């Protein structure tokens, strides 16, 4: 018994042998070839492909990373596990553990804040500018800037649409790489069968849309009391943003410090357009009018159009079961005077936590998930919409030709204006509640009074100190 | 030869009383330690922490910064939703609790009669309590839909051309939540407690009243109701405490809308704590509300000496 080789001895022997093998491997130089994005000139898209080689020594990069996110959990982590597996093939000395955060979006950020406060937040995380969590995470030193790591890596930020890279920047630094991203509530998702029956000719789905007056006329024409709604609207921040922008106004100023709804005549015009449809003429479905609402009502043939975005169009098209009731398409809003598409581009951000023990490994992993293959998977089987790179559209269009409609608005759109003090959830709540009150057809209030109340309530939130 | 007495050793005399008492106490604490540890770690500890945070500017991400009474002053003077949400909560309580207590009591009196199949009736009335709140919310959203809900379809059939939009109408949203709450609670635990209270009333009192010529209503008024007052008081106190803390229904069904119509104080606290991350301010709101609830409970307790009658008490 004394001479028996123990399991501990065998494991020690194995470790020594493996260590020797690893030490004997020569460092492997990985050649990475990238495609640079399409350069946009007004509505003309030019393709420019540049091959660029970056030399990375993957064996030298080591780490034991934790990836905390709720993105991908919608599809049971398939995309997440695929990304980890493919990353391991490139960087064999980096271990990545996926810790899914199972929660709705806003609740997930709350969990991440609590994890950070407890010292348990992972290395690779996501605090999204499009959901007002980005600046708060920066101000409270939750995430770190990536400029130095990107410079050392010679990362070409032209891989992504410029506007989504702009959203990763704050106070002169860049804090992440784009994750999800879309053009926001930039279109009316429609049932073309209703328009055909009414003899209405629709514009192409990816061109500048009809005037707001025309859209209003269509909503009135397609409404049949007690039977059918022509239009359903939601009174939330991104919808109001696009509606007011359609008239040349906006909800907030660019800096996110002032509410423009009452003092800006064009914004007021946009709000009056909504008020006339909802309260004066009462042709708009809102609140509990439709059950199911939105997409469900559209595919059931009970609704002709609703305010949503490009991703809603693809989702609604997939939801159609009876083609005699619904054929899904979209039209955009009228373009801006400078040629930009009227939308409210929003995106997420993949970040590296401040204080991560392995910042370089975390950065490489961030680059891996935001790269071309990662973005394609994120869209096709990751349960998300990440239209942040022009070089993924060939793959996406292969899966669904509708994706072709979204390129131009993404390349030439308008970014959201977010509250400068990062109080996004307070802002969205106040906006939704007061906008609902303004547009309440059951208990109407004068337009000027309701708009002033809405404006002042939003301004009060904007005047609060940074959180 | 050694004898037993030679080997007798003087042993110390055990003080049985003190040691066994100490041991009894120790065993007692050991048996309640799971609860005690949970109580201290998960209730007392967080309560003390929240009291401290209520005097601080604290957003979870950065360390708390002491600001004295700043949060309380903000609540009373600067928060536009503080007084309206408090008022709304009191309104909800003032309507829902009396209706619920009276409804449960009447139901219990009816179910206390000796008729065939009474257990089946008790089961049916109790079943809504077993429906999870989320499921009940979805169910009532459908029932009370303004255009296609079953309730409005029936109302139109009986001649009401423009029935309310219930959850979608600012004027009816709170009442809709009250209706939903009563559906789930009238036949529930409160009714069971009333049933127990009714069954605790001695039969000889009814016999004596009958012999004295008391009719059904007089027996109700002079025997049942007075002897049920402890149960009424108990349900009233619990009802007020529970309804004041209303949160789930408005959170799930209406999210505080439409236009803040169902923005109750519980939701207001939750929003500041877990949505806006004004944790210090939320703690101040919570402590203020705790004081309000305790004060109301004490007032009810004091008033009970005037109308609660305990049978057999001296």
* Global geometry of chain A: globular
Strand content of chain B: under 5%
CATH topology of the largest domain in chain B: MetI-like fold
* CATH superfamily membership of the largest domain in chain B: MetI-like
Number of strands of chain A: 16
Share of helical residues of chain A: 25-40%
Alpha carbon gyration radius of chain A: 25 Å
Terminal CA distance of chain A: 67 Å
Helix-strand pattern of chain B: HEEHHHHHHHHHHHH
Please give the largest β-sheet of chain A: 5 strands, mixed
What would your notes on this structure say?
The complex is a heterodimer of chains A (467) and B (314). Chain A has 18 helices and 16 strands. Chain A is 39% helix and 15% strand. In chain A, the strands form six sheets. Chain A has a five-stranded mixed beta sheet, sandwiched between helices. With 467 residues, chain A is α+β, with helices and mostly antiparallel strands. In chain A, helix 17 (424-438) runs antiparallel to helix 18 (447-462). Chain A has two domains: 30-183 and 345-406, Periplasmic binding protein-like II (D-Maltodextrin-Binding Protein, domain 2, 3-Layer(aba) Sandwich); 187-341 and 419-462, D-Maltodextrin-Binding Protein, domain 2 (3-Layer(aba) Sandwich). Residues 22-53 of chain A have low confidence and may be disordered. Chain A is globular, with a radius of gyration of 25 Å. Chain B has 314 residues and is an all-alpha fold. Chain B folds into two domains: 16-53, no CATH class; 73-307, MetI-like fold, CATH 1.10.3720. Helix content of chain B is 69%, strand content 1%. Chain B is built from 13 helices and two strands. Chain B has helices at residues 16-53, 70-77, 82-111, 118-130, 133-143, 150-157, 173-185, 189-199, 203-211, 216-244, 248-254, 265-275, 279-307, and strands at residues 56-57, 65-66. A two-stranded antiparallel sheet of chain B has the order 1-2. In chain B, a hairpin with a 7-residue loop joins strand 1 (56-57) and strand 2 (65-66). In chain B, helix 3 runs antiparallel to helix 10 (216-244). The longest helix of chain B has 38 residues, at 16-53. Chain B is globular. Chain B starts with 15 loop residues before the first helix and ends in a 7-residue tail after the last helix. At the A-B interface, helix 3 and helix 17 of A face helix 12 of B.
């Amino acid at each position: 018994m004394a001479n028996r080789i123990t399991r501990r001895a065998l494991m020690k022997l194995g470790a020594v042998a493996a260590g020797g093998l690893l030490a004997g491997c020569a460092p492997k130089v990985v050649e990475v070839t990238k495609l640079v994005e399409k350069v946009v000139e007004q509505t003309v898209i030019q393709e420019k492909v540049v091959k660029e080689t970056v030399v990375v020594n993957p064996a030298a990069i080591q780490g034991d990373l934790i990836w905390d996110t709720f993105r991908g959990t919608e599809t049971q982590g398939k995309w997440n596990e695929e990304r980890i597996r493919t990353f391991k093939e490139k960087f064999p000395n980096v271990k990545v553990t996926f810790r899914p955060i199972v929660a709705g979006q806003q609740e997930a950020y709350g969990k991440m804040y609590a994890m950070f406060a407890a010292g348990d937040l992972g290395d690779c995380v996501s605090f999204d500018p499009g959901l007002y969590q980005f600046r708060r995470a920066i101000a409270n030193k939750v995430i770190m800037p990536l400029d130095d790591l990107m410079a050392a890596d010679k990362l070409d930020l032209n891989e992504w649409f410029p506007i989504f890279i702009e959203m990763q920047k704050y106070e002169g630094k860049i804090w992440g790489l784009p994750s999800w991203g879309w053009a926001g509530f930039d279109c009316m998702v429609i049932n073309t069968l209703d328009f055909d029956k009414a003899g209405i000719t629709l514009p192409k789905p990816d061109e500048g849309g009809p005037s707001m007056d025309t859209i209003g006329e269509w909503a009135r024409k397609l409404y049949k009391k007690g039977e059918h709604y022509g239009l359903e609207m939601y009174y939330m921040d991104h919808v109001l943003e696009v509606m007011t922008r359609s008239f040349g106004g906006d909800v907030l100023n660019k800096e996110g410090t002032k509410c423009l709804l009452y003092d800006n005549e064009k914004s007021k015009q946009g709000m009056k357009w909504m008020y006339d449809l909802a309260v004066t003429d009462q042709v708009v479905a809102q609140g509990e009018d439709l059950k199911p609402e939105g997409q469900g009502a559209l595919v059931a043939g009970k609704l002709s159009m609703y305010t949503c975005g490009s991703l809603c169009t693809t989702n609604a098209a997939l939801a159609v079961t009876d083609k005699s009731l619904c054929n899904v398409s979209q039209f955009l809003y009228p373009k801006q005077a400078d040629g930009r598409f009227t939308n409210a581009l929003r995106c997420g951000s993949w970040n590296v936590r401040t204080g991560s023990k392995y910042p370089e490994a975390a950065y490489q992993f961030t680059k891996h998930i935001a790269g071309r293959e990662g973005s394609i998977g994120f869209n096709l089987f990751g349960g998300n919409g990440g239209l942040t790179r022009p070089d993924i559209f060939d793959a996406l269009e292969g899966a669904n030709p509708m994706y072709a409609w979204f390129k131009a608005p993404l390349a030439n759109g308008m970014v959201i204006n977010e509250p400068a003090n990062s109080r996004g959830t307070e802002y969205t709540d106040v906006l939704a509640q007061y906008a609902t009150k303004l547009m309440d057809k059951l208990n109407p209030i004068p337009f000027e009074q309701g708009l002033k109340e809405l404006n002042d309530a939003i301004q009060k939130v904007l005047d609060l100190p940074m959180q | 030869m050694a004898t037993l007495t030679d080997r007798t050793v003087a042993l110390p005399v055990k003080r049985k009383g003190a040691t066994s008492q100490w041991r009894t106490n120790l065993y007692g604490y050991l048996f309640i330690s799971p609860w005690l540890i949970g109580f201290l770690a998960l209730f007392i500890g967080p309560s003390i922490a929240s009291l401290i945070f209520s005097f601080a500017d604290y957003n979870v991400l950065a360390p708390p910064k002491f600001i004295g009474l700043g949060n309380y002053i903000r609540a009373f003077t600067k928060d536009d939703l503080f007084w309206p949400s408090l008022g709304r909560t009191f309104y909800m309580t003032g309507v829902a609790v009396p209706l619920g207590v009276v409804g449960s009591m009447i139901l219990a009196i009816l179910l206390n009669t000796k008729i065939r199949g009474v257990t089946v009736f008790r089961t049916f009335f109790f079943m809504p309590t077993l429906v999870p709140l989320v499921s009940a919310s979805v169910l009532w959203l459908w029932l009370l839909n303004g255009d296609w809900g079953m309730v409005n379809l029936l109302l139109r059939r009986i001649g009401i051309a423009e029935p309310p939009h219930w959850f979608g109408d600012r004027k009816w949203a709170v009442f809709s939540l009250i209706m939903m709450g009563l559906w789930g609670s009238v036949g529930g635990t409160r009714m069971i407690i009333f049933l127990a209270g009714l069954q605790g009333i001695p039969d000889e009192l009814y016999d004596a009243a009958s012999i004295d010529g008391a009719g059904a209503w007089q027996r109700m008024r002079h025997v049942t109701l007075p002897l049920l007052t402890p149960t009424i008081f108990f349900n009233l106190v619990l009802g007020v405490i529970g309804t004041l803390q209303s949160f789930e229904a408005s959170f799930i069904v209406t999210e505080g809308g439409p236009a803040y119509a169902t923005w109750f104080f519980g939701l207001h606290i939750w929003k500041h704590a877990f949505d806006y991350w004004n944790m210090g301010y939320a703690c101040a709101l919570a402590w203020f509300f705790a004081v309000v609830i305790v004060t109301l409970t004490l007032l009810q307790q004091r008033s009970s000496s005037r109308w609660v009658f305990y049978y057999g008490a001296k």
